[in-house]
Structures are given as C-alpha cells and as structure tokens.
C-alpha cells in the first residue's frame, strides 16, 4: 500500500480543494472522492491523481474504496450527517480516520468508538483543521503553564476572512439552537452568546461572545480542565440582538427558515477568494485560571482558517502515514503536543 496516498473525501468542497492542491507540498498524493464526478474528474486530471465517485450511504462501495488506502481525510460536512458512516466504514476496513469538523456532537460520537479503534490499532481524530488544532494546542500549552487550572477560556476571530460553504451550512443547520459550555466536567446547554468580552488578540482588540465550539469536547479530553468556555468574534451590536433571541428561536428552528438560509448560502461563492484568504489572519487567545485566582494567557496569530485547516490536516495525515500515531480516539494536541500548531507555516505563539 502506497504510504504517500490517502483518500480525500469531500475533495469537491472549498476546503477539500485547498487540501488537494496543497498535498504535493507535503509529499502526499490525495485520491479524490465525493459524489460529483463532474467536479472530481477535472480536479483529478489537473492533479495527476485518481478519483472515486461514492456516496456515504453506499456501504459496499465505500468499504471497497477504503480498503485501498491507509487513511481517509474526511472533508464533507455537516459532519453530524456524514462522520458516523465514514468512521464505521474505517473500522471495518482498517483505515485511519481524520476530519475537519467543529461540531461537538461529532467529537462525542467519535469517542464512543475509542475501544473499537484501539483494538483495531487505528486512530480516530476528528478536528484536524482550524477547529480544533490551534485552540487545542493553546489549551494544552496553558495547562502545562498552570497544571492545577480549573477554568479555561478560548476565543478565536479572523481579520479579513470569510466562511466556506461547508462552515456556513453547518451554522445554518444550528440556527435557533442553544450554545454549550463545560461545567464541572459536564457539557451543559446555555443560551447562544450568553457571555461576551473584549479580547486583545495582538493585531487587534475584538469583542467576542460564547458559542458551542468544538473545544467544549476536545479541550476537556486534552487537558482535563473541568470548566470550559469558547468564544468567537462578533460585533457588539450582534451580541445585543442575541439577548432577544429566545423570542424567535422557535422560528429559526423551522425547516422553512433553515432551508431559506441554506439556499441563500448556496447562491454565494464557495468561499473567500485566494486574494482575500492571503490577506486575512486567524487569531486565537486562551486563558486558564486555578482556584487561587492565578492565571496564564497566550495567543496565536496565523493564516486564515481555511488555509490553516489545509496545512494542519495534511501535517497530521503525513504523521499518520509515516507511522506516527496513537490508536483509539485522539485529540490533536493530546497526540502530538502543544507545539503541533507551530509546524504550520505562518503561525506564531506568544505567552502573555
């Protein structure tokens, strides 16, 4: 089996295309896969590689394709609708699994397959992209600075960036739903944006509010810190409007409103242009606190989220293909350490 090849499922998506284009720089050869042959065929020709047209619901064909590769990099979201099928197929075909999800339920679901993956000698690592590699690495970095920390806050924002279709569609699927945080070791539901604050990200001071980011699940696995909040950058005006969200959440949860949002997204560009991506920055900040009130803070500055996702997912894919992995369910920093994110080009870290 070729140890430079891996299956890239969802190669036709915005981030999937970025991963496919960047793979050569890491000495890797992606075998493209997805449901749309009219997109995959010209991509495969341009990249001088092969492709497979396969639906995740076609178990027999999916398993036959996975048997030919040691690893799948799953890039087709929303992952709450696609990850389970792929993980189960990987366990049947002895294939390592990584993806680029940011969805808390997907991480929690993947954890339930830990024993099966451990027995098979396979690694399952959802969240090999912008969510959650940089935040997971900041969380572990801070935990190492303050080992008795009991509270963790993580925030991310971007300057000049934009959303891919996949990310926007995942957000549309969650319209009207509550947020989440971890309290005393348990994931609990809280109102979206129930807390807000200003954060100095280095390049700029920005307002952030609480959202259900993946670290509510993964940072607990990585650090054991029992109280975790995650934030993203928003305008103070949006934050104020969300205080009335409880009045119309029922409407946002209707199929009519979600379908309207999805159709609007599909009529927009697949993601930010190359020029916009190159001129944008991804920002991450974190803080831990112990019971005595001692704190530690750090921040990261790097490329935009889509570019960083392409780099980190390929860095992790190469490590696995080189035999550097741990069987079972793993988190990025938990497996590869707090400095993993510094292997991505253009990333700097600062302890505050």
Describe what you observe in this structure:
By secondary structure, the protein is α/β, with parallel strands linked by helices. The protein has 15 helices and 16 strands. It has two domains: 5-129 and 307-338, NAD(P)-binding Rossmann-like Domain (Rossmann fold), CATH 3.40.50.720; 133-304, Dihydrodipicolinate Reductase, domain 2. The chain has helices at residues 14-22, 37-47, 59-66, 83-93, 104-111, 114-120, 133-145, 165-173, 215-223, 236-242, 249-252, 255-266, 274-278, 305-321, 332-336; strands at 5-9, 29-34, 51-53, 71-74, 96-99, 123-125, 151-159, 179-183, 186-190, 196-200, 205-210, 227-233, 281-289, 295-303, 328-329, 348-351. The strands form three sheets. It has a seven-stranded parallel beta sheet, with helices on both faces. A seven-stranded mixed beta sheet has the order 10-11-12-7-13-14-16. A two-stranded antiparallel ribbon has the order 8-9. The longest helix has 17 residues, at 305-321. The protein is globular and about 55 Å long. The model is unreliable at 163-176 (pLDDT under 50).
